[in-house]
Design a protein that fits this description.
By secondary structure, this protein is an all-alpha fold. It is built from three helices and no strands.
């Protein structure tokens, strides 16, 4: 049986990779992927705690997080496609024009 701390360390490493991806990358698709990595790291922590404590609460929360992640991906990618049709670029630096 894998101890809880191993799951939490993996979750922290994945979350850190997601944060670094958001801060370093300038491509909006890569930023969306980094956000998905961060959400999945939180899901891993919820499932690990749920298994460790012996209840299903964490796993139920994971289903809600999956629903939010799917909605974020659908709306975000639709906005990226619309922006790409308009400006033919998906770099974050080009989106500074959206400021009012």
């Amino acid at each position: 049986m894998v101890p809880l701390i191993d799951y939490l360390i993996l979750s922290a490493v994945l979350f850190t990779i997601g944060i670094i991806g958001i801060l370093i990358r300038r491509n909006i698709i890569t930023i969306f992927m980094s956000i998905e990595i961060m959400l999945n790291s939180v899901n891993l922590a919820f499932v690990a705690f749920s298994r460790f404590l012996g209840n299903m609460d964490g796993q139920i929360v994971v289903f809600f997080i999956f629903a939010v992640a799917a909605a974020e991906a659908a709306v975000g990618l639709a906005l990226v496609v619309a922006w790409f049709k308009l400006k033919e670029s998906i770099q974050v630096d080009d989106m500074k024009l959206l400021k009012g």
